[in-house]
Amino acid sequence: MPTTESDPFSEAAHSGVRTEGSTDGLPVAPELSLSLDAARMPRRSTLIDRRVLRIIGISMVLGAAAGLIAKVLMVLIGLITNLAFYGRWSTEFSAPAEAVPHLGAWVILIPVIGGLIAGLMARWGSRAIRGHGIPEAMEQVLQNESRIPTRITFLKPISSAIVIGTGGPFGAEGPIIATGGALGSMVGQFLRVTASERKVLLAAGAAAGMAAIFSAPIAAVALAVELLLFELRPRSLIPVALACVVATGMRYLLMGTTPVFLMDTLVAPGGVALALYVAIGALLGLISVGVTHAVYGIEDAFEKLPVHWMWWPAIGAVVVGIVGYFAPLTLGVGYTNIEDILNGRLTFGALAFLCVMKFISWSVSLSSGTSGGTLAPLFTIGGALGAMAGIGLSLYFPGLGIDPRIAALVGMAAIFAGASRALFTTVIFAFETTGQPAGLLPLLGACTAAYLVSAVLMRNTIMTEKIVRRGVRVPSEYKADYLERVLVGDVCETHVVTLSASQTLAQVQAWIAQGRPESQHQGYPVMDAAGRALGVLTRRTFFDPAHLPSATLGELIKRPPIAVTVQHTLREAADHMVVENVGRLLVVDPSQPGRVLGMLTRGDLLSAHGRRLREGRRLRRHLSFTTYRRMRRRRAALR
């Protein structure tokens, strides 16, 4: 009759063998010993395999392509700016502000023309070119297996260059990130790759585009991890990092090696000044929440307009033109404005005027659904606010050691950290684009404070609010899989009730009818005369009317059992259950072929999750002064 096997696991059984990577569960055939002998062979690493090396090579090519596209985009913006504002054929990067005194009121019409063209391109080309690019890429990663329409690769940079070149108050980072991501997705759609590999290619192209525009490869990698990959694994991190290295090398070759925002050398702040910079960061975090709500509030207002959305960019561009007429510095990418703010070249009044007018122009234009980025405008607004705070504190409290330039740097980064909650991306980006190591500690403190305030007051971010409204669930926390930390041998049932292959169905039915505790399981391993597992049968099979009562259990087995070893993780076991479409796995000992040590079920996996929940919710005190005094008395008694 049925037997129960029990055996404690040795220390060797608990020692992990996944030093190089993970493996699938082991299908156990009747020739069990052969399968388990093979399992004892050195396991091939799955951290990096041939497919990953292939993706790395493709990503590096994407990095080079993104570097070229970034250069083409900057040339195209320069060409359109010169044609629209100066009436000359030149690709030199020119600021629209210098042309405003000569154009007069005509400057209002130029952004409207750009907005009208962008609306037509979105209507008849692809609606996906609207917006600043990153949320749209996130949506494709989360909802559409990273498949971006191929036409976005061409339409996005052209539409963005037209909008920015005609005075749109945006940076080039959003469009190039979207374009690089679309290029990576397009390559991934032409090649035979998995959805996960296509996501890596999309992230590699997007991050490479950002690295090429700003010469900020490390920040670009952080951006990919925080906003696109939603994971941190070697098979995704290495391709993205190398793509950014190649893209930055292309930038060095085509555009030079100097930082994007040149600053005079900064001096590390003292303790009091550092605390005040952190406070400025918290204040900017609060403002970033208001900015995010304002942008989406204006977007909701556009939704209520009684005209087709195709006309919205032109309507928003009217505001851009009017603001640009009174505040010419708000037109275009404004990278020179950021550099002036960081170097203290603007007065308090000029900073306040630029901050307010840039916010009006950018928020209305972005909400209208035109094509452009958010990073440069937010840097301008936040940098101006930080510089104003720094000027005020240094003027009225000179003994505090506040440097308005560091305050500007802190404000610039903190507002973006609060609005996007891409903490490490922002800190590293501000450092890489300025090359100021003395600013690293104030940046970390201020951006973390802004991140904290934003996380307390705002559920979604400026990057995710739009797609969350469409029903997309965006991950907000990245943590290690708990099931990866638990071995099968730690949770599986070790008291396994087995059945003999020679038993008849009638015998088993009679045994189950007795109602004993050991007969209440849902599945039972079936063993041959030599004690080898032939398969697993369930209660459904036992009571299937299609089977004759005289049939033996050995005759009813249709497939070999599926097994894992005690050294596999629960994540490997769970994945194997899904792949094999089974609800239970045999647990075997690789050191003794044919020996069944236990059974793992879906319920065991849920129990492991229960342990994780208890660890996160149970409040316990392990040390106290009473415990300490009791321990001292015990030591004294032992003496």
How is this structure best described in words?
The strands form 2 sheets. A 4-stranded mixed sheet has the order 1-3-4-5. It is mainly alpha-helical and 639 residues long. β6, α25 (570-580) and β7 (584-588) form a beta-alpha-beta unit. It has helices spanning 11-14, 32-39, 50-86, 100-103, 109-124, 134-143, 152-165, 173-190, 195-214, 217-229, 234-255, 271-303, 312-326, 335-342, 348-367, 375-396, 404-420, 423-434, 440-457, 465-469, 488-491, 505-513, 539-542, 553-556, 570-580, 602-617, 625-638; strands at 3-5, 26-27, 496-500, 523-527, 533-538, 562-565, 584-588, 596-601. It folds into 3 domains: 50-255, Clc chloride channel (Orthogonal Bundle), CATH 1.10.3080; 272-308 and 328-470, Orthogonal Bundle (Clc chloride channel), CATH 1.10.3080.10; 488-616, Roll (CBS-domain). It is elongated, with a radius of gyration of 32 Å.
Q: What is the overall pLDDT average?
A: 84
Distance from N terminus to C terminus (CA atoms, Å) equals 59 Å
What's the domain count? Answer: 3
Low-confidence stretches: 4-45
Q: Strand sequence of the main sheet, in spatial order?
A: 1-3-4-5
What sort of overall outline do the alpha carbons produce when their principal axes are compared? Answer: elongated
Rg value: 32 Å
Number of strands: 8
Roughly what fraction of the amino acids lie in strands? 5-15%
CATH architecture of the largest domain: Orthogonal Bundle
Could you say what the CATH topology of the largest domain is called? Clc chloride channel
The CATH C-level name of the largest domain is Mainly Alpha
How many helices?
27
Helix content: 55-70%
Structural class: mainly alpha
Assign the CATH superfamily of the largest domain.
Clc chloride channel
GO molecular function: chloride channel activity
Region (Disordered): 1-26
Domain CBS: 557-615
GO cellular component, one term: chloride channel complex
